[in-house]
Amino acid sequence: MRIVFKTSYDADIRLFKHNAQAFWYLLLFAFAILLPFLVSDFLIGEATLVLIWAICGMGLMLLVGQTGQASLGHAAFMAVGAYSNVIYQLNFNMPFLLSFPLAGLTAGVAGALVALPTTRLHGIYLAIATLAISVLTEDIIIILEPITGGIAGIFAPDIEIFGYTFNRYGNPVELYWLVLAITFIVIYAYRNILRSPTGRAFAAVRDSEVSAKAMGVNVARTKMVAFAISCTITGLGGALMGHFATVFTNETFNLIISITLLLIIVVGGLGTIHGAFFGSIVFVMLPLMISLTRDAVGSLTGSGSITIPGLESGIFGAILIGFILFEPMGLYGRWLKIRTYFELFPFYRKDMFRRQKSYLKTERTR
Amino acid sequence: MSLLELSNVTLRFGGLVAVNDVSFNVEEGEVFALVGPNGAGKSTIFNMISRFYTPAEGDILFEGKSILEKEAHEIPSMGIARTFQNIELFEQASVLQNLLVGRHTHRRSNFVADMVFTPFVRSEERAHREAVEHVIDFLDLQPYREKFIAGLPYGVRKVVEMGRALAIKPKLLLLDEPASGLSVEETQDVAFWIEDIKKVMGITVLMVEHDMHLVGAVSDRVMALADGRMLAIGSPQEVQNDPAVIEAYLGSDGMTDDGEAA
């Protein structure tokens, strides 16, 4: 176990705890940048998808993991991001460099507006309200057919930056790097939030609203800010997803996607940036694994390829239930346990990560 | 002008009158204790001062201004900090982070600057940290700085909560049963700290406490309540010897012949 000797307050403000940690993360970033030289174009496409899901997941993570507000409607904000990005480009002739951040902002403003009435709700009621938003968005897309293309969908043009085009099929590697750069920016902003007063206000609202108020945190405003930032990030992810999918309809960002996002952050590990990445890796790789297994089983039994309808959703559901039952801290939590085991070897105790029983809570004053 | 003035404050929960026409003043620089049996309305008074409840009648003045038009989250920036009877810390955060939340009222940055982490945010963070370190030194919390609340013993949590309130740098500190659930030694520590909070930091203290030894040791004035009404107010000795207070705690003198309470 590493002991860090802190000689200034900056030691707790800096992004990395110590130089060794900085080294490993920079190595990971270097690996991510050099990945296209190591694997095939198909896998680069999958990696791009992982990054896009991770961006969307980070958006939801900020809301659920950091601020403790449930949302079953985040696909709606992906849709806002995706549609507004393409509409800004097609109808207003904006370049990607302008339409992309604007799309994020649009989703953020939409999120803040949704937060105005819904953040008065708690727990399951908030979840149901956001669920309604998700369902409503699908209908709104159909109603706004003249600009959204309705059921027929909308075609996303190639991303173009200073005359250089990025296309999923034409140059997947460049698209991957672009998405990777955006991912870095989002991670950096997320980390900054965590180490600043905004992040602490989020945690305060998550752990005890009564106490947050008593510390001078404006709970309603903090929730609105959390919704706004969360939806901005998810909207940016949605905009990228729109370009990646090249064509999307009202059904692209449906309720299943909302639940998928929730699955990603729960399986990955709530409240951590790592969780969003672990979760999206599982989510993207799983269909691949299922189809590989299916082929293997098919060739083994000689019955050819078997298709079982609903198999994917079933396996996803089972994984989610398994994680909630056996590893509520998600994959990242499991990784932390394994790491601690080796760091403290042989002094690791089984109950080290057990959630402590919390003491009696003050009665709610509302 | 008193620091805090409650005048004819009444609060009802449906048919129950939790606080009935209570008036008292807390003067600057004193330690004022509220005592009384369970359900007397002590914590309810706290919750009215921190604006979780709104009194049906009466007014609450802080530094001469009514606080009733303020929202709960605006109270700390006026200079009123509080702790909770049953500890309301941010469980999934470290002691340091909990104390830093106490600095929230002194925050000058906004969320956009926070996201970019401008040099201004960084220098603010250093200033907050320095203020928090003073509190940590004051309460001897150094060994727990990086520890998560979820793993801390009850006594330490109590101290952390007091520290979080002190990080606000309030003029008035409301302590809701600072010694409940503490051992004898820990209670003695609390007594020393309350003395120091008053003398060294110059913070006025209003506290609810059941431990009469602690109340007697640290408080300048005491008010006794029962069933939402004021029974007596004065020095700890005066209140303890007041017949109405003795009756509220021990029952009336009307014993039956065989010595059992009537």
From TrEMBL, chain A:
Pfam families recorded: BPD_transp_2
Record's bilayer topology term: Multi-pass membrane protein
Keywords from the named record: Cell membrane, Membrane, Transmembrane, Transmembrane helix
Transmembrane spans: 21-38, 44-64, 71-90, 96-116, 123-144, 175-193, 225-246, 252-270, 277-294, 314-332
Subcellular localization: Cell membrane
CDD domains: TM_PBP1_LivM_like
Protein name: Branched-chain amino acid ABC transporter permease
Organism annotation: Hoeflea poritis
Automatic annotation (TrEMBL), chain B:
Stretches that traverse the bilayer: none
GO molecular function, one term: ATP binding
Domain ABC transporter, chain residue ranges per copy: 4-252
PROSITE patterns membership: ABC_TRANSPORTER_2
Pfam entry (one): ABC_tran
Keywords, ordered alphabetically: ATP-binding, Nucleotide-binding, Transport
The keyword ATP-binding appears for this protein: yes
Protein origin, superkingdom: Bacteria
Keyword ATP-binding: yes
CDD domains: ABC_Mj1267_LivG_branched
Protein name listed in UniProt: ABC transporter ATP-binding protein
